[in-house]
Amino acid sequence: MTDLELFEQEIDECSLVEGALALNALIFPETDKQWVKHTLNTMFEELEHALVHETDEKQKFESFLRFFYHDWNFSGDSEQFFDSCNARVELVLKRRKGIPVSLGALLVYFGERLGFPIVGVSFPSQFIVKVNWPHETPLYINPFNGEYVSKSILRAWLIGYEGPLAKIKPQDLAACDNPSVLGRWLAVIKGALLREDNFAQALMCTDIALSFVPDDPYEIRDRGFIYQQLDCQQLAMEDFQFFIDSCPEDPSSEMLKIQVNALSGHQVTIH
């Protein structure tokens, strides 16, 4: 069984953090999966010990949040938000910095192990965490800083993301499944790697994405741009042509036609 097949099998059988770790290891082979798993277990034991005398569940949850953000000092990386380090579980654990999806995945991981009614939510503008106390209105947490956010704040985020007419829909606040979150996580990693000019590993991201949706024209278009940066001009031209044929009405198709014409006389480089 290939690494990719193992990854596809794992994401349906594990927590979001474990699925992200498997994803990270595909893109970054140097990822120390055993260290991460050992560290998560050690941290959980530390957390259990710290909360052992808490008897009220809600108070215990507040203590959990304080421990995560103050004792462990996890925080959002506001200075280098788009750095690929923030999407790699191993480095988030080492640096204690991340982005909403990586910090949120850790928060849900530990919260679930402690038995709290906590789930991840793939809100359109960013990953958030929902707490469902029985017979109460759900609470929402911004994992970037551990603060509770009201529905009015969430709507303000949505307006900033989608425009002034945006309204929160029930599915926007529904618990998310691992594959959909990992798809967004993968896109975040790819975007970060492209900004860092790390085209070889960005190409791995497109290969993973296309293993799930083989004929996604937008992913194939992006792969074409990566091939172009890697000086694989023939492969780039083929991907651009696929996109043009699949999405003739897309505004970028006209630009890509110019690219294809320019590339058609370019000598192919084989790596």
Give a written overview of the molecule:
Helix 1 (3-10) packs antiparallel against helix 2, helix 2 packs parallel to helix 8 (178-195) and helix 9 (199-212) packs antiparallel against helix 10 (217-229). The protein contains twelve helices and six strands. A four-stranded antiparallel β-sheet has the order 3-4-5-6, with helices on one face. The protein has a two-stranded parallel ribbon with strand order 1-2. By secondary structure, it is α+β, with helices and mostly antiparallel strands. The relative contact order is 0.09. Helix content is 58%, strand content 7%. The chain is globular. The protein has two domains: 3-173, Roll (C8orf32 fold); 215-263, no CATH class. Mean pLDDT is 92; it is low at 267-271. Residues 35-186 form the Protein SirB1 N-terminal domain. This is Protein SirB1 N-terminal domain-containing protein.
Provide the fold topology:
Layout: H1 3-10, H2 16-27, H3 33-50, H4 57-71, E1 75-76, H5 89-95, E2 97-98, H6 100-113, E3 118-122, E4 127-131, E5 139-142, E6 147-148, H7 151-162, H8 178-195, H9 199-212, H10 217-229, H11 233-246, H12 252-263
Parallel strand pairs: 1-2
Antiparallel strand pairs: 3-4, 4-5, 5-6
